[in-house]
Amino acid sequence: MKPKILVVDDEPDALEVIAFKLKEAGYVPLTAADGLRAVELVRDERPALVVLDLMLPKMDGLEVCKLLRRDPATAGIPIIMLTARAAEMDRIVGLELGADDYVTKPFSPRELILRIKKVLARSQQSDEPATHLRIGTLDIDVGRHLVKVKDQAITLTATEFKLLELLARRRGRVQTRDRLLQDVWGYDNPIDTRTVDTHMRRLREKLGPAAEYLETIRGVGYRFGSNG
Known about the structure:
Layout: E1 4-8, H1 12-24, E2 28-32, H2 35-45, E3 49-52, H3 61-70, E4 79-83, H4 88-96, E5 101-104, H5 109-123, E6 132-135, E7 138-141, E8 146-149, E9 152-154, H6 158-169, E10 175-176, H7 177-185, H8 194-207, E11 214-217, E12 221-224
């Protein structure tokens, strides 16, 4: 079955253009013009990904994101925020709330489709030979996309999971922020390294005691501790 992509925007022209491009790329587009309808569609249709505007009637995009991330049934659905708010603080707030990526208006429909493909690819099962990574109290089941800390399951977004998996596979090796943006996000020309820092902060909060395995190498990047 073709993946369903929900596009949430109160601008009819934007909905029409994105829906057309999604069909062209082989997806099934769903559309919503306000935040409340978006939440209903996510719960009813379980789309593979949500493209979410921030400035929406009835319920803004940030509140929609918070609701979806709080509900275990929808917490794992990738979210790309698409908005005219280009300020760095707006991006950081969106990423802090759990967005997987952030695209600002005006935008290139082709770039948006590429971003969608890359985010969805993070949700797919890994082709790496090891499907289970057990390190100390941390258990990463790559095949099932599950993470446990001390046998307690935790919910990660697709991007958070990919980031953790990559660091764990490269245990003991320092990964620069630019390298992580290329390997996790698929950015060809990394420019906003704060994206990495924001996701690392969220990942550490979710891992709780297992966050000690994630080391910050000041001025360089991050490393999964070799003695974790």
